[in-house]
Amino acid sequence: MRYTYYIYLLVFTLIFNFNATAQEQTSDSSYTLEEIVVTAQKKEDTIQTVPIAITAVGGDVLDERAIVNLESLQGLVPGAQIGQFANTPHGAVFNIRGMGVIEPDPYAGSAVMVTIDGVPQYFNMTSLVDLFDVDRVEVLRGPQGTLFGANSTGGVVNIITKSPENEYSGKAQVTIGDWNRFDVKAAANLPINDKTSLRLSALHTGRDGFIENVYDGSDIGEINVNSIRATLGYDSGEDFSLTWSTEILRSKNGSPYVGAGTLPGEAEYIAPGTEMGPHGGKMYTSYCLPAGTPCKARDPYQSANSSDPNMSDMNIDATTLTMVWENTRFGTITSISSFKQFDLHEYTDQDGTVAFLASTDRRTDGDQMTQEIRINTEISDNAELIYGLFLQEDNYFHSQNFRIQFASPGFSQVTEQDQERNSQAVFAHAFIDLSDRLRLQVGGRYSREEADMKVDVTHFISLDGVARYFGDDRLADFGIDFGTQAKDDWTDWSAKVGLDYQVSDNVLAYGHISRGFKSGGFVGRITIPEDIGPYDPETVETIELGIKSDLLDDRLRLNVNIFKNDYQDLQLALIYFTKNALGVDVNGNSILNAADATTQGIEVEFLAAVTENLRINGSFTYLDAEYDNFPYPAPDDPNRNLAGYRLQNAPETTASFGFDYTWDVTNGDVTLSALYKYNDEKFNTSLFNTARATIQETDIIDANLIWRPASENWSMNFWVKNLADEHYISSVFDAPGVLAIVNFLPPREYGLSFDLNW
């Protein structure tokens, strides 16, 4: 890590010298980089003056790159891993600097908070947001606990949707593409009077799956999402404004979960080449052979499913009311009230064969209410204070039937969990100008969280040895049922102290020390009573130094930062198979606390206007992420410690490089753009850095060709994702000794988008 500091010192020197040289020169260049306004610290700043590591992606970029959900931002944000849970299309897996989601079910919050218009999205199952009619997405890296709350120890993904405007206008985008893709995104402003406007926006996205079902030749993993949002805006013109929005989403998707990572001898296995179905399909070779090697993707992607209806149906309803009072005796008062509910039904065939080996049927309902009162006030000419109160209540009920045929013939396990969680917090954050160039920031947040969990587990074994689902009277109680309830609360604090120094008009240097907190909790999806917990809160202490610079007459934007995060009681999910008291194989789930872990590294971003027609951009991240102390005793090694093991979803190196070139043509212009994304090898869903949990390094190239006519009210965009048609595994569920279930990155996809503005 010491080399990182040397590199950082060198970069600082180069930036300082670049800036000094630039100040001595004059230029009449008309091609400069535009300012980007963000609200990363609950107030408006330009992206180059806010003293934190942040990447902002505008709505125009989302449209140009045919990005319809957060997963497609992978590669655009340094140090971020963005994906989905294999069998939950809307379930987000965000990891920033090695920290993020550890468990798909709602009982365990994420270390990366997703917010929409100021509202935190607690449920991981629903936070892989579909992006339409979005002004921008801000990704904040590092702990953000003082202003955003307890579950932001890794960072924040801040989504800001378009606001109503007091003029008639609109836009629409239609996309057709590979795998019968058909997308429509549309929005319209409808002024009601001089103070009130309505904005309506909608999304439909659908495509076939890209995984071949060798049983009948069909596709697995189709997508069908429909969503509509209505936003009402009111501005009195006298220091009061109101925004009310409601959104409805209906999603009916084929589950993209793909099995057959099973190794022969670990479970009942259908030999490769075995005739599978009516179309002459044959069983494919496991992706995880030979034993002891990483799982490898092949072309084509294949699975097998004869009758299980792989599906993931999600319904989401959300509403938010934001009210702002300006120029009060206290300052600007902002109130954000929200309610969100969802229901999910998933049926997943987890073995990837036509045999009935392992599958789940699960139903989840949840709701969330939040209230934030925030006051922004100037306490003097050189001091600003943000303070407030935050309340949250969430409830969910989850029922899952896990059917196992290979380990215990005819065995079914039904788990029902019911959780209530309440959160309260008070916070304050001050910005103080110590001089014209030097600013101090200091903040703190005190949080209290309470959780009440009820779990009931029922085990069945069928009389004829065939596992079945709910309501079958041939299922006999196996006699190992249990129910348990637990309640606990946790209090802790987050804090931040930082300095930023305006070296020149175009160079900002900053540094801060911060502390973050993530609440403890209970494990809901359990088969063993001891697994319920509670598990302890995790805390992180962070040191970060950064430089932001606009150089060469605002034609080169170069941002560099280094960081070190020290984690205590780091929360980690462990999924395993073991034998219960009756000698029956059961699926265990627990959350552990690693005593100490450290993540540290360097992040570099640049954007350059090389000529009036050519822009280039890129990023680089080096990340060292290891357990420092993690006792994990085993029967054969009671002193085992996982110190030195690498954290999950934490590749050592990630990088990107792209360009945009625009040239004039008759009656318009054409832009060619491309982006190369590199992701180093990483470990996924395993504490033990096993070969099967290894995700190979990836190289992906995306490209766009956009034509804009002189009228500027419409455009056409031909785009290609994964241009080289590389085939990679995106995730591996590794249950040691039993299953390794894999999922894939999409192969090459191409399409045409037509945009219209009025």
And the CATH topology? Maltoporin, Chain A
Largest β-sheet summary: 22 strands, antiparallel, barrel
| CATH class category name | Mainly Beta
What is the helix tally?
A: 3
Distance between the termini: 53 Å
- Tell me, what's the shape? globular
Classify the helix fraction into a percent range.
under 10%
What portion of residues belong to β-strands?
A: over 45%
**How many strands in all?**
40
CATH H-level name... which superfamily? TonB-dependent receptor, beta-barrel domain
Describe this structure in words.
Residues 1-8, 10-16 and 20-28 have low confidence and may be disordered. With 758 residues, the chain is mainly beta. The strands form seven sheets. The protein has a 22-stranded antiparallel beta barrel. A five-stranded mixed beta sheet has the order 3-9-10-7-8. It has one domain (2-287, 294-757): Beta Barrel (Maltoporin, Chain A). The protein has three helices and 40 strands.
